[in-house]
Design goal:
The protein has 169 residues and is α+β, with helices and mostly antiparallel strands. The chain is built from 6 helices and 4 strands; from the N terminus they run E-E-H-E-E-H-H-H-H-H. It has a 4-stranded antiparallel sheet with strand order 2-1-3-4. Bound molecules: adenosine-5'-triphosphate and magnesium ion (MG).
């Protein structure tokens, strides 16, 4: 095990304002700390609504923490601007719990999987990404000929595999 953890989460706190009672807050994440080393897998277990997904979103910087820090290879990513965060984003992938809300329903799955390549300027067109997407779809057990279909034409499990393909990419 290397000395420095890959990810270090320190004292994360996230409170959500209660819509109906103005000054009341729900504490979704309360003083959570853990670290993950390279090649290590961490499972977070807890009852429904205990703050697991929120912890994940805070870790990725998808929403701001009220308190606490996240270090990625020693860099404090909680203090970065969205522009400074961009190169780090390439290295952190997520497979969301609900694959249907994660995939844009109006685009083909080819577009969904290739989107990160387009966003980071690694390919200029969908065509250029086609071979890569075929390989990824095969890797998750889906036929590459399905890439021009829409998300609603897949089952829940298949949609989750489409999300895994994008995370692998
Ligand atoms: N955007 C939000 N606005 C307000 N409250 C929220 C928001 N997101 C989550 N919560 C609340 O924060 C708490 C933690 O939710 P979270 O989604 O992190 O739970 P979870 O552990 O992932 O649950 P599950 O096992 O059901 O997926 C819950 O009480 C939830 O209602
Ligand atoms: Mg959850």
């Amino acid at each position: 095990m290397s000395e420095r953890p890959l990810i270090e989460v320190c004292n994360l706190v996230r409170k959500y304002k209660n819509r109906t009672f103005g000054n009341h807050y729900t504490t979704a994440v309360n003083d959570v700390s853990f670290s993950i080393h390279s090649s290590e897998t961490l499972g977070l277990v807890g009852e429904s609504g205990s703050g697991k997904s929120t912890t994940g979103r805070l870790l990725l910087g998808l929403e701001p923490a009220d308190e606490g820090r996240v270090f990625f290879e020693g860099t404090d990513i909680t203090s970065l601007s969205s522009r400074e965060m961009k190169p780090w984003r390439r290295r952190m992938q997520v497979i969301f719990q609900d694959p249907y809300t994660a995939i844009n329903p109006r685009k083909t799955i080819q577009h969904f999987i290739a989107e990160p390549l387009l966003v980071h300027g690694l390919v200029r067109s969908l065509r250029e990404a086609e071979d890569h997407i075929s390989t990824l779809l095969r890797q998750v057990g889906l036929d590459p000929s399905l890439m021009t279909r829409s998300p609603h034409e897949f089952s829940g499990g298949q949609r989750q595999r489409i999300c895994i393909a994008r995370a692998l990419l």
